[in-house]
């Protein structure tokens, strides 16, 4: 295989994330030379549509001028100052904007990444229970097929053995809630249901639970699985009645991805903690935050000698460059009514998937909400029954100008929220062409 100089240098030193590096012998890394909007320019394969928002974070595409300018303006002032006992106009402005988007909350705690944000929320929950008369509450639960990050604690909260199995010896036990009511079709079209009976198995643990952690409505890395929002309502009622915290991991789903500020809005519930990242800075820089209430905050508020303070910290907490990106992103979402556009156009993307499914006969379980649509390849069909069919599509899609990256044999679109309908349609056409080629192979 002919490799460019950059590819040779890359493979000599760079250990890529989430990859079996042996695969790179036949599919070397793509050399990105520029990116704008929903398009990537490569040195090897020309222009590609970034239909996955570069691991789901580029919510406004690449090179967004408003965010670039905000970051440049902040660079002229300062790039980072310790946040402990300092403040600045930018970080307070960001707090106010996050609360304005989520008015049921009162306090904002910043962290560095999605995984870190989930850890913060879980630690807050545990410490609150322990120092507010609920010492027996030391356990957490999460959902089957969950994914909450790559630290030891968040891997334990997850249910994706592909990522967690090598580290099982280090992970605390976290019970999983089974019988999650998964759905197909459009989540927006669902009617309210009563799922309280599904929570009966939780009663065994109700006295020892500190909190339950969920990805609301959509489980991303677990397979782009959607479940009924009414299940969240049932969980909120169950936890509230028993003094158990509900923690919402809105890292993927929050800030517009599903057409709302929070996916939990589909169930009209407010968890005790909500964690945001990805769309928060529109993928310009790493940042996350945990939103919670004055009730939780007051459980830590005391004299220093009491030992009740929340002592979690990160070097780059509240980083000014990230804050500048986040403020500009939120301003743009609001000014351009991006959430409303997502809610309006989500049906179009869903229909594109339905059309591909109908035309090819090769997609099962078409499902969507907001600007996420997914379906499963029918690997029982000749041509799709090969080993790692999704990976085969991924490699071929790149050659046709589409960064697709299926999850196993699940294909999905998760584009920037300002992607044009023309690019969505072009992406669907490429996917359909690829599937037909596989069926003929």
Automatic annotation (TrEMBL):
Keywords: Aminotransferase, Biotin biosynthesis, Cytoplasm, Pyridoxal phosphate, S-adenosyl-L-methionine, Transferase. Its EC number is 2.6.1.62. Its cofactor is pyridoxal 5'-phosphate. It catalyses: (8S)-8-amino-7-oxononanoate + S-adenosyl-L-methionine = S-adenosyl-4-methylsulfanyl-2-oxobutanoate + (7R,8S)-7,8-diammoniononanoate. Pathway: Cofactor biosynthesis; biotin biosynthesis; 7,8-diaminononanoate from 8-amino-7-oxononanoate (SAM route): step 1/1. The record marks 18 as: Participates in the substrate recognition with KAPA and in a stacking interaction with the adenine ring of SAM. Substrate binds at residues 55, 147, 278, 313, 405. Pyridoxal 5'-phosphate binds at residues 114-115, 249, 314-315. CDD domains: OAT_like. PROSITE patterns: AA_TRANSFER_CLASS_3. It is found in: Cytoplasm. The modification N6-(pyridoxal phosphate)lysine is found at residue 278. InterPro entries: Aminotrans_3, Aminotrans_3_PPA_site, BioA, PyrdxlP-dep_Trfase, PyrdxlP-dep_Trfase_major, PyrdxlP-dep_Trfase_small. One of its GO terms (cellular component) is cytoplasm. GO terms for biological process: biotin biosynthetic process. GO terms for molecular function: adenosylmethionine-8-amino-7-oxononanoate transaminase activity; dethiobiotin synthase activity; pyridoxal phosphate binding. Homodimer. Belongs to the class-III pyridoxal-phosphate-dependent aminotransferase family. BioA subfamily. Catalyzes the transfer of the alpha-amino group from S-adenosyl-L-methionine (SAM) to 7-keto-8-aminopelargonic acid (KAPA) to form 7,8-diaminopelargonic acid (DAPA). It is the only aminotransferase known to utilize SAM as an amino donor. This is Adenosylmethionine-8-amino-7-oxononanoate aminotransferase.
